[in-house]
Amino acid sequence: MRTRLLELFPALRKLPSHCFVVGGAIRDLIMNRAPADADVASRDPLAAAKILGRKVIRLGREHLAAYRVVDGPHVYDFAELLDGDIDADLARRDFTVNAMAVDLDRDVLLDPHGGQRDAAARVVRMVRASNFDDDPLRTLKGVRMAVRYDMDLDDATMEAIRTRAAKIVEVATERVTYELSVIFSSGRFRKAMTLLDQTGLVGALDLHVRDGADELSLAASLALIVDDPRAYAERWRWSESLRRDVLTLQQLMKHHDRIALYDAGESVARQLPPLIDEPLDWPDFSIKPLLTGDEIALPPGPALGRVKRALLEAQIRGEVTSREEAERFVKV
Question: Are 15 and 9 in contact (CB under 8 A)?
Fold first, then answer.
């Protein structure tokens, strides 16, 4: 394991003694996935980060500070070894598959909670229930891991999450929104809804259980399960683009003729089919007005705007297909 980590993240060779690669990178390698970054636990994380000789980026609050170093395509995150002891550190982590470590000094894989076993069985199992109380976001993270990696939540973990689901509203909104964005961008909508329902998180987050196709996009998923996107977007601090896309998709679910689809824009409209059970009459999204405002014999103002819009709609419907037809249309 150490050899493979050093191949993927060569800067690990520079680190001092008493450094451990922990969590996701090990889990991903065991599950035959390519790890995106390396998390390192160290007694002095800032000093370890500085050894890499790159810009050090501080992450988190004062008492939970971590440090990130980006070295070309590689990302290294450094955090303090909890209680100065790797066994204590792993015991306070969220799930067994994340509670493994490689001792870079001795090339030893530390797995005190059965992470390898659960990774092989594709099970998300808590290290201990009280660890959810340290950070209630872990309840939602458990669902995210099960959905993203196509794993199962074991029964005891499910129950521990269910009894703490209400605490999710105490977590910073940006952190919750990130977890939901990953969950509903994983192409497993049905599994996501099942687990959110079974854990009680669907109610705590004021979502609604609805049936849908697995291939729903993030915006389409939210359009289906959020009744009031405007209020929800404000509460959970969605980006303006996400708020707009969700609202547009909800409108298209009710009315989706050629013009409505064209006005929505192709990138949003193409997310609609899994939300409705009927064929769509697609417009040509490349259509541009055949005449400019200067070419229409009207002064600038509302009347000109109405004529331009009427012409565009006629083109979208296929009633006007040439410049000559357009000139006749605006003269009528």
Answer: no
Q: What is the pLDDT along the chain (332 residues), one digit of tens a residue?
A: 899 999 999 999 999 888 999 989 999 999 999 998 999 999 999 999 999 989 999 987 655 679 999 998 999 999 999 888 999 999 999 999 999 999 998 889 999 999 999 999 999 999 999 999 999 999 999 999 999 999 999 999 999 999 999 999 999 999 999 999 999 999 999 999 999 999 999 999 999 999 999 999 999 999 999 999 999 999 999 999 999 999 999 999 999 999 999 999 999 999 999 999 899 999 999 999 999 988 998 889 999 999 999 999 999 999 999 999 999 999 86
From the number of C-beta atoms within 10 Å of its C-beta (0-12, 13-18, 19+), residue 278 rates as exposed
Domain encompassing residue 311: 293-331
Angle at 71 between CA 83 and CA 2, to 5 degrees: 55
Q: Are residues 111 and 128 in the same domain?
A: no
Cβ proximity of 284 and 290 under 8 Å: no
Instruction: Indicate if 37 and 112 belong to the same structural domain.
Output: yes
Which residues partner with 84 through β-bridges? none
